[in-house]
Amino acid sequence: MKRFLAYLLAFGLLFSLLPAGDTLVLTPIEAASAPYRYQLEAWELSHFMGKWLYKLRDVLPGEHRNREGRLAAVKEYFSLGQQARELSDEVERLASVAASSPGQEALRATQARLEQTRARRDRLGARVEEVLESEISRGLAEQGLASRIGLIFPPVDFAFSSLPNLLVVSPRDRIETLDTVLLKSDIGVGDMNHLEDEILQKEDLSALVEGTGGVATYPSVISSDYDLRTTLAIATHEWLHQFFFFRPLGQRYGSNPDMTTLNETAANLASQELSDLVYESMTGERVVRPPPEPSEPPASQPQEPQGFDFNREMRRTRLRVDELLSQGKVVEAEQYMEAQREVFVEQGYYIRKLNQAYFAFHGTYADSPASVSPIDTELREFRSLMPSVAEFLRQIARVS
User: Fold this and answer.
1) Mean pLDDT score, 285-290
2) Which pLDDT value is given to residue 101?
3) Which residue(s) pair with 207 in the sheet?
């Protein structure tokens, strides 16, 4: 019950600090995106009641608390998710070739199996959310992130749901995030293109609608389509944003590009370390991450071309775009980005739109090849000087 009350307190604090969603005067970007806006407050309220009723039931006497059984439910959930992904791929394949009656029958049968598999997985969703929240909380506590009275604050909390999209707006003459707006998860490609074109034509701004991996609302929004390891990493990443929220680093999010990049990259770096430990505890499997590749090879060790390298080509593209924009060659930079987008697509990397807003969004993460920030390298060095991930987080959270 103590944990349940802590969840209620955390929700109240976080929800009360969210910016108001209604305003009498809309900016041009808000007006253009209004038909597609993600209703954040409605999502918060609808998921609050369902999750907390489930958690209240979970703390009542008689609830099955055997960890082995709880982890078995997690294993089944993600196994069903893998089956659903395979069936979805099969549906797409059959839909492209099923012209005959037998082919149509196979398509309908596969679609029915896909729906049944998703339904079985979704019935386990609430329980699996609670189990993973408990496992992540256990891992955070073991790493020294619990309070003096043994609580993790804010409490780890997420919900499996369809992820919203994100509208990112940048100037055309430089790469910088001017505005972001959460959009509905079911916005179609046609509407994405229409919204981006409207902002370009009316406001002379670069715009991009991009998918999200997770959103640090409270509870966080996590897709149900990931595997266990990815889910743990994203859930931990979003919790770290909530952790930073009560500290200078989080309170200065968005105050300038470097503070945003520092926040996102610190969350990436620490979530990898923390979620790997949780994954190992849950599965018994050892996680070994390869060391990060340097952005440029040492001058004394030139690398010979070994086929197409996405990271190398994306970083080269970003540097060239920056160079063109610094010279005032906006149109040339945009033509170059479109030509490079076609190169990526030919190599099997589907990028719907490559523009200034693309680099503004992906460049926020300093460990991304779309970034030119040195913050990732600096953070990794700073982490190596800290005795623990908990101390790293406490120190970096003080940056204002």
Assistant:
1) 85
2) 65
3) 169
Contact status, residue 317 vs residue 340, Cβ threshold 8 Å? yes
Nearest-CA neighbor of 256 among 329, 144, 177?
177
What's the longest Cα–Cα distance across the chain?
69
Q: Mean pLDDT throughout 34-49?
A: 74
| Phi-psi region at 163: left, alpha or beta (left = phi > 0; alpha = psi -120 to 50) | beta
The residue type of 252 is R
Contact 240, 266 (CB under 8 A): yes
Contacts of 334 (CB under 8 A, 6+ apart): 172, 355, 356
Summary count for the chain: helices (H), strands (E):
15, 6
Q: By C-alpha distance, which of 214, 225, 221, 207 is closest to 264?
A: 214
Torsion angle (degrees, nearest 10) of CA 99, 102, 106, 109:
120
Q: How many CB atoms lie within 10 A of CB 147?
A: 10
- Residue pair 169/206 in contact by the 8 Å Cβ criterion: yes
C-alpha–C-alpha distance, residues 340 and 300, integer Å: 29
Q: Cα–Cα distances in Å, from 188 out to 125, 171, 219, 291, 353?
A: 26, 24, 26, 38, 14
Output b/e per residue, 120-129; b: 16+ Cβ within 10 A. Answer: ebeebebbbb
Share of the chain above pLDDT 70, in %: 82
Rounded Cα gap, residues 97 and 378, in angstroms: 51
**Contact predicate 3/155, CB 8 Å:** yes
SS (H, E, C) 141-158: HHCCCCCCCCCCCCCCCE
How many degrees, rounded to 5, is the angle at CA 133 between CA 387 and CA 222? 105
Q: What pLDDT, in 10s, does the model give residues 329-349?
A: 999 999 999 999 999 999 989
Q: What is the pLDDT of residues 149-194, one digit of tens each?
A: 888 999 999 999 888 999 999 999 999 999 999 999 888 889 999 9
